[in-house]
Amino acid sequence: MYRIVKKQVLNPTVTLMEIEAPLIAKKAEPGQFIILRVEEQGERIPLTVADFDRAKGTVTIIFQIVGATTEKLNRLEEGESLQDFVGPLGTPSQVEGLKKVAVVGGGVGCAIAYPIAKKLCQQGTEVHTIAGFRNKDLVILEEQFRAVSQKLKIMTDDGSYGEKGLVTNALQALLDEGNQYDEVIAIGPLVMMKFVVELTKKYGVKTVVSMNPIMIDGTGMCGGCRLTVGGKTKFACVDGPDFDGFEVDFEEAIARSSLYRPFERQAHEEACRLFQQEVR
Amino acid sequence: MPNMSLKKQEMPSQAPEVRNRNFQEVALGYTEEQAVEEAQRCLNCKNKPCTGGCPVQIDIPAFIQEVANRNFEAAYKVIARTSSLPAVCGRVCPQETQCEAKCVRGIKGEPVAIGRLERFVADWHNEHSKEAMKKPASNGHKAAIIGSGPSGLTCAGDLAKMGYEVTVFEALHLAGGVLVYGIPEFRLPKAIVQKEIEGLKNLGVKIETNMVIGKVLSIDELLEQGFEAVFIGSGAGLPRFMGIPGENLKGVYSANEFLTRVNLMKAYRDGSATPIQHAKRVAVVGGGNVAMDAARCAKRLGAEEVYIVYRRSEEELPARAEEVEHAKEEGIIFKLLNNPTRILGDENGLVTQMECLEMELGEPDASGRRRPVEKAGSEFLLDVDCVIMAIGTSPNPLIKSTTQGLETQKWGGIIADENGLTSRTAVYAGGDAVTGAATVILAMGAGKTAAKAIDDYIRSK
Ligand SMILES: Cc1cc2nc3c(=O)[nH]c(=O)nc-3n(C[C@H](O)[C@H](O)[C@H](O)COP(=O)(O)OP(=O)(O)OC[C@H]3O[C@@H](n4cnc5c(N)ncnc54)[C@H](O)[C@@H]3O)c2cc1C
Ligand code: FES
């Protein structure tokens, strides 16, 4: 069992947890992920390693409450334990030798972007971070990003915090100002990554995206996580999650991500209903 | 006087139209009377041709004689001398190409139902025997096993019985390998696998789940931690796809994904947290056990029409004969000598049709089977909303890529000698990881051989 040593509500829909998993903490690198099950009979879900503390033996995860499983996960408190926690899976992000990078995070994708920005900063890369959210209440990790970025732009869809607009507006502005990036690293909803890539293609700036498709095992065994990159089928769990954004077939990835949406919605409603019965 | 009936005792089974709606076991097993009668068909041949057909050389006539004399526990002891998973093998071995193919009674009439008798004996033992295995005195040596499929479990059990401190590292959250994530409940009840694993635990074997070796720990780290030998039984879990257009549409699965959702994650049960598509018209591509299992699961999940699409003919179907028969009885439609060419979808990316070509058999190919050749202009469309690819798997490259000096074949199989020793000292391998997708019994045999070799190696150090 894997104990929750810390729980922190980052915003109404996003929670941070620090999990005791010493072996994984020892090996984890930015860009990798874990797979967890909340309880016996639970679903296996992948979550990116948001941070790790090798000395303490803990791994931090940050998740958005989107379905029945994250709903259940969010109900656990400090001191309680997860049934299963396996990792570190996937290939670490390749950031060596980069001098100047724009990190673009969207919503809970910022949780994945943060450890990468941190690693870049630690190796002396100049980091410009753009973090986008729907509104002020949903902003996360602002202080953490500020500490590792030379420039930080917070964007909100409704302008209730930072600047009003999309992450692509901010990125375009930075590019137009003449910033020459070795690489743009974009992590967030598929649609956001798709638009970032459309923009950076015009500017010819190499762009890495982090794909987060449906997964089961996370070791290359099921192929459920497959996507088309450069015309070839790749498994996100072993070949990724990072891929060259110019090569990813986003239309297909967007279609594939919606397969179980009706099921998830129903399961989510069911979980909420049960929860209300419990508290009553 | 032996029972000279030309036919074997029929297996009591759930009726096809009932069982294709549930996940309970199809074959119910012989009664004691049936088992004894069937055992009496054995001629107790002196030269034991059947034993020669068994990959682990079970003394088949000897155990069958014990059954005929109603000494069921004694029969079990005979089997247990050389096999460790009889309740499993009795259910899933391809007996018709192994022991039963060599049975003299099969020359005129049906061979003795060796597999069914093996199953009977193992089930009888599991039900009646109170003898719990105890942990033997430790010999102070440690061995690590990677993977908890039949090869790993067997190697672990044999080493534990010799006094080794054995730890099994399994990537998934549950031990059992293909026995729990691949082969469905209706063919191999999970309680049987569970019982085998409990037995190992009683022997002192530690099972650590959620341990992906190559990620969380490497083989070299295991050796540094004091394990004196490592056995790799990581199977052949990497699914193959055909590489035809439309394979990434929604509703196209690898058999591994589909079966994992159903078996390991229990998606067929109400209230399971794991989703599964309840398709209406399903095409399963392939002709092996995996294809039959996927097709029969799809049927049980409520599909109205399920096709097996296979590019060769009935004769070449690699699945166990019994599974093909059961699938047919359950209403699976066999589209033989057909090969898919592309998969078509709607505007939402959902599968709507699969295009196939008719094939005919030409000259024999490298495998000795007649090569299927396309009939030009024979394209036709099959209306389906789900396609399951069951065209084979290969070993996962993870262990190779994280273990320096571990040699593999081009296709990924780990190279091991006849004792299971790899190109690395103290590192052994067996089962599907070495042979590519094969059978439970061969994996079990490889685990046994390696256990013996590991013991010899550690003693001679
Ligand atoms: C659907 C299906 C039906 C089948 N039906 C039959 C049948 O009827 N009869 C028959 O004889 N055979 C059948 N087979 C084949 C048979 O199941 C296999 O040949 C056999 O299970 C191989 O055993 P194994 O021990 O080599 O590997 P597996 O059973 O594949 O077990 C390997 C284990 O290793 C684990 N693993 C992999 N990599 C790592 C790692 N890096 N670290 C830790 N653990 C790891 C895996 O998770 C898995 O649990 C079937 C196979 C399938 C898929
Ligand atoms: S999650 Fe199963 S292969 Fe990637």
> What is the approximate shape of chain A?
globular
The tally of domains of chain A stands at 2
What is the quaternary state of this protein? heterodimer
Terminus-to-terminus distance of chain A: 29 Å
List of distinct ligands in this structure: flavin-adenine dinucleotide, FE2/S2 (inorganic) cluster
Structural class of chain B: alpha/beta
Radius of gyration of chain B: 23 Å
At the first level of CATH, the class of the largest domain in chain A is Alpha Beta
Q: Helical percent range of chain B?
A: 25-40%
Question: What is the residue-averaged pLDDT of chain B?
Answer: 93
Task: Write the CATH homologous superfamily of the largest domain in chain A.
Answer: Nucleotide-binding domain of ferredoxin-NADP reductase (FNR) module
Which pair has the most extensive contact? A-B, 39 and 38 residues
**Adjacency order of strands in the biggest sheet of chain A:** 6-1-2-5-4-3-7
Largest sheet of chain A: 7 strands, antiparallel
Count of helices of chain A? 9
Percent strand of chain B: 15-25%
Terminal residue distance of chain B = 54 Å
Outline the biggest β-sheet of chain B: 5 strands, parallel
Structure report:
Chain A has helices spanning 22-27, 68-75, 110-122, 142-148, 167-176, 190-203, 236-239, 250-257, 261-279, and strands at 2-11, 14-20, 33-37, 45-53, 58-64, 81-82, 84-89, 100-106, 126-133, 151-156, 163-164, 183-187, 207-210, 226-229, 232-235, 242-244. Chain A folds into two domains: 2-89, Translation factors (Elongation Factor Tu (Ef-tu), domain 3, Beta Barrel); 103-257, 3-Layer(aba) Sandwich (Rossmann fold). In chain A, 49% of the residues are buried. Residues 274-280 of chain A have low confidence and may be disordered. Chain A is built from nine helices and 16 strands. By secondary structure, chain A is of the alpha/beta class. The longest helix of chain A is centred in the C-terminal third of the chain and has 19 residues, at 261-279. In chain A, strand 3 and strand 4 (45-53) form a beta hairpin. Helix content of chain A is 32%, strand content 32%. Chain B contains 17 helices and 16 strands. In chain B, helix 4 (60-68) runs antiparallel to helix 5 and helix 8 runs parallel beside helix 17 (440-459). The model of chain B has no long low-confidence stretch (mean pLDDT 93). Classes of the chains: A alpha/beta (280), B alpha/beta (461). Chain A binds chain B through residues 23-24, 27, 37, 41-44, 68-69, 83-89, 216-217, 219-224, 226-228, 233, 238, 252, 255-256, 258-260, 263-264, 267, and chain B through 171-173, 209-212, 215-217, 237-239, 241, 243, 247-251, 253-254, 256-257, 260-261, 265-266, 272-275, 277, 348-349, 396-398. The structure holds flavin-adenine dinucleotide and FE2/S2 (inorganic) cluster. Flavin-adenine dinucleotide binds next to helix 8, helix 13, helix 15, helix 16 and helix 17 of chain B.
